[in-house]
User: What shape does this take?
Amino acid sequence: MSLHPTLERQLRRSGVDTVDPRVHDLLERVSRSYDEADQDRYLNERSLEVVSGEMQQLYEDLRTRTQAVHAATIEASTAGVLVVDEARRIISHNRAFARMWQLDAATLAGKDDRTALAAALPLVAEPDAFIARVVELYANPTATARDEIALADGRVLDRQTAPVLDAGGRVLGRVWFFQDVTAAKVHEAQLRDAKEAAERASQTKSAFLANMSHELRTPLNSILGFARLLEHAQLDDDQRQDLALILSAGEHMLALVNDLLDLRTVEQGALRLELSPLDLSAAIGEALALVRPLVDGRGHRLTVDVAPDASCALGERRAVVQVLVNLLANAAKFTPEGGALEVSAARRGAHVVVAVKDSGVGIAPEARSVLFTYHTQLDAKTMHGMKGSGIGLALTRELVTKLGGEIGVDSAPGEGSTFRFTLEAAP
Assistant: This one.
């Protein structure tokens, strides 16, 4: 009887040299079990070898693909990229980095980054500061940083660096990114220069406007004062008509000077408004008193309609009166003689809407789009020869904005115009 070697060894260790025939069948079954176990073990080992080989191949394929993706990603970057290990050996870089620092392959291939650093140093405008910063960053392995490097040829590089960490937070190396930001820096400098030039020009303009306005106001007041005295003199019709022209021209010039002074105040940011509850009906009455001579002189009919719940709003009296005077004066000037003007105020939620309506010739859509900009004048032919300074409505918009409201206009040619502005309703 032939038994499995392992079973024979176990029988010999037990001192059994002769097998009792009565246990032959049992021993044969045990022996076959050993044979089957050996066969299963062999198959398992072979399967493990195959699986291990396949897993190794999959790992190699994955590593190769990962490296390929990593290399392609770095190479596609417009920034110069350098990756080093914890010993500062160069692991990876892209062509943008080599081109940016004018380094050849021999300087970069598998070398310590100190070699590349030494080769690139002549390009830097401040080499000592550059080296000191690199040493500082390597001395702190977990440090991240972003700064700029000025090169001797005038270029500026944006430098970013961060540690490369494994899943457990252990430092494996460091990655460096360099981006050429020279064009952006030049553009920033140009914008800064343009802004400074504009500010200087604005200051010069403001000083000129202030000086010119004050120089003009004194003689204009004298001219108007003497002209008003002449109104009480004995004049014939032609002389009185000439005097009316003098007064009209002088008042127009004085209004222009006042607009220029107001423009300077707004542009300098010197206009500060303290908002408080005000009697809107009283403010409208004050504005009407100021423009009444112009309204009556052109034979306009004027009506006022202030709703009871709109008579109190938040604002600054002087500014609100100025807004109303500007709108009413425009309505009176640019409406044909004998026209109709209306001032109204109504409550709309948390706001009061004030409207100045006229029966004038209206405003074309293309003119409405620039109506509230500085130095914009409507066509004098359509405005019956009346001309403004091109400043009043722009200043009116600025005042309304500082009052916390908004201003707009509804108008169409031949249908008159309605200017509306809002104020916050007083509690």
Observations:
- The chain has four domains: 5-62, 77-180, 187-267, 276-424.
- Residues 380-387 have pLDDT under 50 and may be disordered.
